[in-house]
Design brief:
This protein has about 500 residues and is α+β, with helices and mostly antiparallel strands. The chain folds into 2 domains: about 5-245, ATPase, nucleotide binding domain (Nucleotidyltransferase, domain 5, 2-Layer Sandwich), CATH 3.30.420.40; about 260-440 and about 470-498, ATPase, nucleotide binding domain (Nucleotidyltransferase, domain 5, 2-Layer Sandwich). It is about 35% helix and about 25% strand. It has 15 helices and 24 strands. A hairpin with a 4-residue loop joins strand 2 and strand 3. Helix 10 (about 315-320) runs antiparallel to helix 12 (about 375-405) and helix 12 packs across helix 13 (about 420-430).
Length: about 500
């Protein structure tokens, strides 16, 4: 009888590290979560202790392995490991492996002035977009590293002396887990730094020189599914486990949700919403505020993606609950929305923190339109849920227009994906299949599946479909035309104030 084999996945996120053991059918066998501390300071500074991140990962893995042992399975049956990570967060360390500063978290806003200078004084906006596919924004690693170089003498000296080593969290963890033997990253994480050229898949020497960072040490760039060495996780395993994948969390979720074919997309419906659409093997620039990035990669194949960011998704529902008190539990919003026949002319523009893609009006304020005495709280709740679907429609239409590619299907995850009203409305608006695979840990699954590809557990990416269970599917219904008319009315309100 052949021993069943398993895959370890480490999903290192901003607020915690989740570790999961999957079998080759993509089923969760054991799982553990370890919370992670974040340091918030004045001026929008957000940091984490780099050593704490590593220790946090070890603690999470140890808990998961303990649970896995309780199933009666042998730890030796775990054959490979994949890592997914909070993307733009980075660490700088010296030649001894000692961090020179706390990890700078993707949420940190310290480089706003640097961004303005790069755009207005140095005129790099078009060059950066053309080379990296990204916009100049504090969200990405590069501008915050420039800030450190200009404001921290220790970092400046290390960079100028060629003794500063840069890495996103995947690279830092790999370096620590392999005791400094491996210094690598993957295409997806590299593509979030502002240092990576999308066209030649290498670090962009031109941009690094313009940033004054040409002497910075940068990791080797590899496909997301690669042999990244091995680790015993500081003695948690008797023998080293092969590291078979590293990939940014949103990209891992896209892979874990089956965005393998050109024209497939995923939307994570959380507080905000990240939409990634696989656009195939050639990068395409966006004229509508989308970012071009790497979707995922294996040896010999790189799939690109467009990414759209929606600022307020579940956050709108939370505001209705916490500030207006329209309901006590967000789970009943589906019932409230379906208790009325339509929105009764009520529309919500959810610009609580401005509007993201494709409008990019960050000065816009949220508003409720069309209220009358015959409107009740159910209409307002319905309008809020509709605004989520309308924003997804906005982004998907823009992506299709940018690329000329038809949308094949959309897979959704995140808390709002439990709301059947929203998912049906999205299907009505997009006129394509909308799927909910019911996988709460899509990022971890994506990293695991890619590691399985490296380990030979799957013959290739097309073989992993058996590990992606389709839980629920939605298609356009009888009310599709009415839904699209309401969307056009909402869009008119958006455009009226832009």
């Amino acid at each position: 009888m052949t021993e069943e084999t398993y895959i370890l996945a480490v999903d290192q996120g901003t607020s915690s590290t989740k570790t999961i053991v999957f079998n080759t059918d993509g089923e969760v066998v054991a799982k553990a979560t370890e919370p992670l501390k974040t340091i918030y300071s004045e001026g929008g500074f957000v940091e984490q202790d780099a050593e704490d991140i590593y220790l946090n990962v070890l603690a999470s893995v140890e808990k998961c392995i303990a649970e896995f042992k309780n199933t009666g399975a042998s730890v030796s049956s775990i054959k490979t490991c994949g890592i997914s990570n909070q993307r733009e967060t980075f660490v700088v360390w010296d030649e001894n492996g000692t961090p020179l500063h706390n990890a700078i978290v993707w949420q940190c806003k310290r480089s706003v002035a640097v961004c303005e200078r790069l755009k207005k004084t140095e005129g790099l906006e078009d060059t950066i977009k053309a080379n990296t596919g990204l916009i100049i924004d504090p969200y990405f690693s590069g501008t915050k590293l420039i800030w450190l170089y200009e404001n921290d003498p220790k970092i400046k000296q290390a960079v100028d002396n060629g003794k500063a080593y840069f890495g996103t969290i995947d690279t830092w963890l790999l370096f620590k887990l392999t005791e400094g033997k491996q210094y690598s990253t993957d295409h997806t994480n590299a593509s979030r730094t502002l240092f990576f050229n999308l066209h030649n898949l290498q670090w962009d020497k031109q941009l690094l020189a313009q940033f004054g960072l040409e002497k910075l040490n940068l990791p080797q760039i590899r496909p997301s599914a690669s042999d990244f060495g091995g680790s015993d996780f500081d003695g948690l395993f008797d023998n080293p486990v092969k590291m078979g994948s590293m990939i940014g969390d949103s990209h891992a979720a896209a892979f874990g949700e089956g965005c393998i074919v050109t024209g497939t997309a995923k939307a994570t419906l959380g507080t905000g919403c990240s939409v990634l659409m696989n656009i195939g093997g050639v990068p395409k620039s966006s004229d509508s505020g989308m970012m071009t990035t790497i979707c995922w990669s294996i040896p010999g194949r790189v799939d690109y993606a467009l990414e759209g960011v929606i600022v307020s998704c579940g956050a709108t529902i939370e505001w209705l609950k916490n500030e207006l008190g329209l309901f006590a539990n967000s789970k009943i919003t589906e019932e409230m929305a379906q208790a009325v026949t339509d929105n009764n002319g009520v529309y919500i523009i959810p610009a609580f923190s401005g509007l993201g893609a494709p409008h990019w009006d960050m000065n816009r304020r949220a508003s409720i339109h069309g209220l009358s005495f015959d409107c009740g709280k159910n209409h307002i709740v319905r309008a809020a849920l509709e605004s989520i679907a309308y924003q997804v429609k906005d982004v998907m239409d823009a992506m299709q227009q940018d690329t000329g590619l038809p949308l094949q299907n959309l897979v959704v995850n995140g808390g709002i994906s439990e709301n059947q009203f929203v998912l049906q409305l999205i299907a009505d608006l997009l006129a394509c299949e909308v799927r909910n695979n019911g996988m709460a840990d899509a990022s971890a699954l994506g990293a695991a599946l890619l590691a399985g590809v490296t380990a030979g557990m799957f013959s290739g990416v097309d073989d992993i479909s058996r590990s992606l269970q389709n839980k629920t599917s939605y298609s356009a219904g009888d009310l599709s035309n009415k839904a699209r008319q309401h969307y056009l009315e909402w869009l008119t309100l958006i455009k009226a104030a832009i």
